[in-house]
Amino acid sequence: MEKQHTSRRDFIKKSLIGAAAFTIVPRFVLGKGYLAPSDHLTKGVIGVGSMGRGHFKYAGTKTVAICDVDTRHLALAQNALGGGIKEHHDFRDLISNPEVDIVHIATPPHWHGLMALEAARSGKDIWCEKPMTRTIGEGKKVKEAVAQHGNIFRLNTWFRFDANFYGMNVPVKKIKKVVDTGMLGWPLKVTISKHTGFDWKFYWVGKENLPVEQAPKELDYDMWLGPAPYKPYSTHRVHTTFRGYWDYDGGGLGDMGQHYLDPVQYFLGKDNESPVKVEVDAPQQHSDAVGIWRKITYTYADGCQIILDGEGTEVGKAYIEGPKGKLFRGFVSDIPDLERKLAQYPDPAPQMTDFVEAVRTRQKFALNEDNGYYSCTLVNLGLAALRLNRTLHFDSAKQEFVNDEAANRLINQPMRGPWTF
């Protein structure tokens, strides 16, 4: 399968170079498994709850297979797609389906790493929901596997390259342009707070002492848990409210962290670097249920900081503050005539923002396994500090905590058998 997938990539490259000579090649001419440049890319979606069903009809792709451990979700998905779509109960069967070009992973985060790794090894291209992985160690393994097998990987948070960025109300490339000019000075402090336009969604908290319930007949609860530790079924533990439990996600930070932090990493120029210190101000966390936090502060080796203001105490703070100037919510600045000055500078370098084109031409997507790993690590560093409720020091080069055995155990967390990397 890997050899066949490599051959398909080689064909795509050659056919695009010679596109002037022919533009439509029927699939039967190429043989099974080959992709004609004029064809839609085929997609299989793993996890067809509300998130997965929202991603069926992206331009340039056709959903040909679906997978879920909840038969009710499968029925809703079939209805949304008009029926006749191949169904799978086990994600490995969908990944091995030869008709699938792209594997879209829309499950809870505790499955992201295993599924992405399986897809990479099977030669499939990957579209993964955020956060990229639930642990730093899983992220490392996915990054390495994608590099080894040559897959095209997209992480599904788009703010570094598309749409207005929450409370800033401008695209991120405009913020990056301000930073790149040096008009704010260096180092910079970024404050992510409800006052700068970012909601941490503290309703994604878990419940302690959950009642033990009978799993509904339509749900394979053991398969839903997968690599996560066994816990008795409770309605609040699964589906949309799973975010409130450490075994599957990380509350509001796990849900929104990569949306908010990946663009910051991009405009600070930290796509290949991690903070060296993480400080936390929070109540002691429950061992199962994710709670709230007041503040999390990341500090880089050069003095740049990212402050996550959970309770909104940073009233009146700028979104970005430097020694020479500030940038506030709504792209308001204390730098006189900012827009005119900004127009004199070049825009940031262009990015590959069309995933279908990235797959066809084998170009790295704008948010990929490399920079996505580092922004996901930002999330997981914060969650580690929160779970341990203390300051952590991190070696950016080694990607491990400094002299902290308990913290390093959170990098590679055990999986429930038979699941393993």
Automatic annotation (TrEMBL):
Keywords: Oxidoreductase. InterPro entries: Gfo/Idh/MocA-like_OxRdtase_N, Gfo/Idh/MocA_oxidrdct_glycsds, Gfo/Idh/MocA_OxRdtase_bact_C, NAD(P)-bd_dom_sf, TAT_signal_bac_arc. Residues 168-420 form the Gfo/Idh/MocA-like oxidoreductase bacterial type C-terminal domain. Pfam families: GFO_IDH_MocA, GFO_IDH_MocA_C2. The keyword Oxidoreductase applies. Residues 44-155 form the Gfo/Idh/MocA-like oxidoreductase N-terminal domain. This is Gfo/Idh/MocA family oxidoreductase.
